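Quick start: read one record
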Amino acid sequence: MLVGLAAATLWPRLAVAAGPIVVEDWGSQPLGARGVPQGWRSYETPGGHPKYDFTIVEDGGHRALELKSDDDHSTVAKELDVDLGVTPVLEWAWRVISHPAGADLTKRATSDVTGHIFVVWPRFPAVLRSRLIGYIWDPALPVGSTVKSQKTGTVSFVVARSGPQGFGEWSIERHDVAADYKRIYGETAPKPDAVALSIDTNDTRASAVARFGRIAFVAR
């Protein structure tokens, strides 16, 4: 009996840590495939004029989606099933190759940004009440700062990386989505419905390129 009680007491300590929830690793996508990737869907924004100049590539040992933009705003989304109470951290590999010249997210007339990743919480009516948190690499804004979209109240951007250090190289980012949601909206984060990848140059009429590798949700 004592052995049984001891085992029961120890059981909670033996719980296995939650494994990663992989959203996409591009491994099943045909190399060289262009346009909206398999398993993803277009996610159009008003006035975006999307071209979906996206290509599955191999780069430095990474299978990746390359996003190119030239005077357009293209976004693709993938549905997901993730419990942020268990795996609240969004982890992704990316290589940002170029920023749109003249872009400044703090100004409506130039609110463009190179390739970035969103977590999406749709709410009806979607145009007015959905919530999106986008993680970006900005040329100048400080890391960790939050910028509200100058065009829609549904989007908040979090600066994941800033400046020239590491620019053009592969890196892995990790951001606590549950904590960011609580900080931005003052509420416990519900389950998100989708992850989206986007690139936006239609305000500056410039161009930009970025590549995204593996995307997953992991435990803290």
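The domain at 18-218 is CATH 2.60.120.260 (Jelly Rolls).
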